[in-house]
Design a protein that fits this description.
With 189 residues, the chain is mainly alpha-helical. The chain contains eight helices and no strands. The chain has one domain. Helix 5 runs antiparallel to helix 6 and helix 6 packs across helix 8.
Length: 189
């Protein structure tokens, strides 16, 4: 570890994390719980995009897609401008990044994304939760604009995919619960 200040994308990550934490500290009680949770996830999703874009082992088509989401993150003026709204403006960036990751996640990207994910929650659960709450976080009008923008870029936001992801996570959680419970054979075996 070095004491040198980070540069480039890592500097943006450090700046982003500080801004998000300050916003949550100042506005946390006035923001919906979902919004606070999603804000706290923003820096983790950003650094995941950075790591995936820089990993030469990630297939090039996926890196290009991830690079586009990364560029959207850095743009100060987009559908929900951070330059005006502060860190709350990263909600559309988060939804777009999640759609990109979810689209690529089902294919070749999953092992790389899991390797580079540093969030405290399971990545698949995070992607599902953001997808499910995107409409309420952004509001109907902005959500529809973002979907239209993503569709033009070849990124489909499939509401059915969010439901499928939810069912998959529920199934995995059920299996984990069953596996964790001690086996109690009535015959003493």
């Amino acid at each position: 570890m070095t004491d040198n200040p980070s540069t480039g994308l890592l500097s943006f990550y450090d700046h982003l994390r500080r801004r998000v934490l300050r916003t949550v500290e100042r506005r946390g009680g006035r923001l919906p719980e979902d919004a606070v949770r999603m804000l706290l996830i923003v820096p983790d999703v950003f650094i995941l995009l950075v790591r995936l874009a820089l990993d030469k082992d990630v297939p090039k088509p996926a890196r290009v897609l991830v690079g586009g989401a990364l560029a959207y993150f850095i743009m100060p003026f987009d559908l929900f401008p951070e330059a005006i709204l502060g860190p709350i403006g990263y909600m559309d960036d988060l939804v777009l990044a999640t759609a990109v990751l979810a689209q690529a996640f089902g294919g070749e990207l999953e092992p790389y994304a899991r390797k580079h994910w540093s969030g405290s929650e399971d990545l698949r659960v995070v992607l599902r939760d953001i997808s499910e709450s995107a409409h309420s976080l952004l509001g109907h009008k902005l959500y529809e604009k973002l979907k239209k923008l993503m569709r033009r870029r070849g990124i489909e936001v499939d509401d059915a995919r969010a439901l499928e992801a939810q069912r998959t996570v529920q199934t995995v959680q059920t299996v984990q619960i069953i596996e964790e419970e001690p086996y109690d054979d009535e015959f003493g075996a």
